[in-house]
Amino acid sequence: MRIAQNPRLFRFMSECAPQARVILGDARLTLAGSPEHYDLIVVDAFSSDAIPAHLLTAEAFAVYRRHLSERGMLVLHISNKHLSLEPVVAAEAAARGVPAFIKYDRTGDQNFRYSSVVMVFPSDEASHAALLRYEGWQKASVDPSVPNWTDDYSNILGLLVKRYVSK
User: Fold this and answer.
1) Across the beta sheet with 68-77, what order do the strands follow?
2) pLDDT single digits (tens) 121-147
């Protein structure tokens, strides 16, 4: 945490939220134990080779929903070089009967910038319409063959990006 808050090393914390409260711990467990509600919850934990699957389960999404304010929004940065996480996140949205929106940023280049994928779950209809007015946002499509994950079921291998799966 000291490294992230050191403005000589990183500017994000000092420039964007110098008084931000940093809480260390497992995101799901810490949030579950919190009495607070938030306008925005951002989950950005999926870019490594070992994704925290417990943050993509129905039980995790229930925790996120419980802690969103009435007009709150859940944002998931689901970019991953090896796994396509969109189907499991879209399956969770479908299981809950809520729309999910997705944006692909395919502007990756050779200068250490990578493409990214972001999914959003807005809480209210006005936010749904507002997202679609911005360039690149679209409703996420659901693959009926992909079930939503639970604490008792996940299928990492089923999400391997097709270039790694031999035919």
Assistant:
1) 38-43, 68-77, 116-122, 101-105, 138-139
2) 888 777 888 888 888 899 999 999 999
Return the CA Rg of the chain.
17
Longest dimension (CA), the chain: 52
Q: Is 164 left (phi over 0), alpha (psi -120 to 50) or beta?
A: alpha
The pTM (predicted TM-score) of the whole model is 0.82
Q: What pairs with residue 68 in β-bridges?
A: 38
Report the DSSP pairing between strands 116-122 and 101-105. Answer: antiparallel
Tell how strand 101-105 and strand 38-43 pair up: unpaired
Q: How many angstroms separate the CA atoms of 2 and 32, rounded?
A: 25
Q: Are 80 and 135 in contact (CB under 8 A)?
A: no
Alpha-carbon distance 86 to 92, whole Å? Answer: 10
Q: Are 5 and 14 in contact, with CB atoms under 8 Å apart?
A: yes
Residue for token pair 């579950």: 32
Stretch (H or E) spanning 105: strand 101-105
Give the side-chain half-sphere CA count within 13 A for 167.
2
